[in-house]
Amino acid sequence: MVKRKGTTGVSKIKNCKQMTALLHDYLHDNLSRKLKREFERHLRFCPDCASFLNTYKKTVAATRSLDPETIPAKVRNNVLAFLRKQIRRIGAFLLCTTIQLLA
Amino acid sequence: MTRLEPLENPMSSIETKLIAATSMGLDSRVGSRLALRRSKRSGKDDAALIERLKAGDQNAFETIFDLYSRRLYSVAQRILGDVADTEEVIQDVFWTAYRKAKTFRGHSRLSTWLYRLTVNAALGKLRRGRKNREVEYEQFLPKFQEDGHHLVRPVVDWSDTLEESYAKHELQQLLKGALDQLQPLDKSAVVLSDLEGMPDKEIAATLGLTVLAVKTRLHRARLFLRGKLAVHLGHSAA
After folding, report:
1. What is the pLDDT of residues A14-51, one digit of tens each?
2. With b meaning 16 or more CB within 10 Å and e meaning fewer, what string describes B167-180?
């Protein structure tokens, strides 16, 4: 999918399809310096790719702005109660086993 | 032309997340929230907790529960989309963590281990008989002419009109619906990356994928989500 940072012999970006394949790495600053320069040169002359990049970035931003799901107090209490019960049960089981072994 | 800054550096530190969030036109509070969600506990703190847990200290277990239950719940809920299923998964995850604490060797961070347990449990639950809400990606992905140029031109830049077109709640519902249509592994990658702020390398460790596979899945999922938003706004996904 991508040429790593520092790689050599990177071919020139010829079209929008190649630009689109590089979007993720461009946004994560994972392109070699040369490829990044070519990417940005293409952007200057291709309004379609500039628009595509803007909308791609906006999509990521919108996803990141989703509110986290909050754990309802009832669910939290249920889970904690279950876990405490299980731990007590295991404790009692281990105690019985130890007593039996010692007897 | 507006200069288009990269989102973040490859290490995805909290600081770069903050810069990234701002550079994408996000409210800085979103970046802060990401940072808060991923607030880094030191490895030493976690190691001490695990050692106490291995020694049977129930308080250590409850501390771990307090520290991680909200985040793990959010991740599982996003993947499953169902409260009852999520409760079951969270219950299983913490019970497994308690029972398997002795096997935790500390090769990964405690948080990575817990995320892995959570995502695996959620994906397992999805595999076991949930109705499939995935859709074909193809119609929402960009299309190109034979010479590699965009098939539909001009590509409309709707990035500045998204918030004008939808109220926050509507946009959230729209995105949640689109997320639910992603393939489970793709959705997990998006949730861990965009909602939890996890770096690609850690996502790879959590999902049992290579970093390259994570990037490929994230990219494809984001193209799909972009296409869904474009179509909802009345534009071509291509």
Report:
1. 899 999 999 999 998 999 999 999 999 999 999 999 99
2. eeeebeebbeebbe
Interchain contact, B61 vs A67, CB within 8 Å: no
Phi then psi dihedrals of residue B175, to 5 deg: -70, -40
10-residue block means of pLDDT along chain B (238 residues)?
A: 43 37 40 50 78 87 94 95 94 94 85 94 85 79 94 94 88 93 95 94 94 96 97 92
Give the whole-angstrom CA distance, residue B221 versus residue B20. Answer: 19
Can you give the pLDDT at residue A11? 53
Check CB contact of A81 with chain B, cutoff 8 Å: no
**What is the C-alpha to C-alpha distance for residues A57 and A73, in angstroms, rounded to an integer?**
35
B94 vs A: CB within 8 A: yes
Q: Which pair of tokens denotes residue B156? A: 């409309």
Q: Tell me: the pLDDT tens digits for A89-103?
A: 877 666 666 677 666
Rg (CA), chain B: 20
Q: How far is A7 from chain B (nearest CA, A)?
A: 15
Alpha helices in A28-72 (DSSP H): 33-45, 47-64
Structure letter (DSSP) for residue B144:
B
**Chain B environment of A62 (Cβ under 8 Å):** 162, 171, 175, 229
B234 touching A, CB under 8 A?
no
Contacts 24+ apart (CB under 8 A), B165-168: B165/B233
